[in-house]
Please model this.
Amino acid sequence: MSVYEITFSPTGGTRKVSDIFTKSYSPESTYVDLSSQKTDYTAYAFGPEDICIVSVPSYGGRVPDIAVTRLGQMRGNGAKAVLIVVYGNRDYDDTFAELQDVLQKAGFVCAAGVAAIAEHSIMRQFAAGRPDEQDGKMLAEFALRVRSAIESGNISGDLKLPGNRPYREYGGVPMKPQAGKACVRCGHCAGVCPVGAIPADDPSETDNKKCISCMRCIAVCPRSARSVNKALLTASSMKLKKACSGYKENELFL
Model:
């Protein structure tokens, strides 16, 4: 048996959750970065004894399109998948339903689901500091419960997860990061953009049609030279304030 940590985490929040869970599940695992443009995802073929911990952020209640594409290129071959959906304290809506459909179509057996909170990737004041210590303890406990269920054979393959079909519509986020005067065109953002929205020959630009507003370029810029429109950010923050307020708990589905 091999354990794989398969994660799409442009700004690091989803990976924090995934790392806590995976390390509690198994001391040894192989990391698969779904944000890499250079990886040949068709080369991944798993087997019935393998455990794949698949973690994605919820974008407007959906799985990011690029993650859907790359997961769909893998071959599950009966490997057991643990679905982790991470959201910034609003809601995950149909993310579980979509992720389950994608994984089942690729040949995985969906064994368990975890909904977890992490700091919002755009409006950082929401769920700030999460996952925190309390989250860590809860995620570690979830991991042990999932491992116990899988090892005891108490997995039917008919996992019931929240969500609707057809999925809710998602038209993207209007906030697209742009480079400011501090940009020195070092190209670091272009090299790690999950969708190639920043041209390598002119990293001060952004292809708004390709950009998925994942905010990775902002997170990795060594000069803090990239940002989103402040007026749009303020307006969006006010719009989401009520929905994103309050303390939401992590959830386990078995």
About this structure: Helices lie at 13-25, 65-72, 95-105, 133-151, 188-192, 216-220, 230-244.
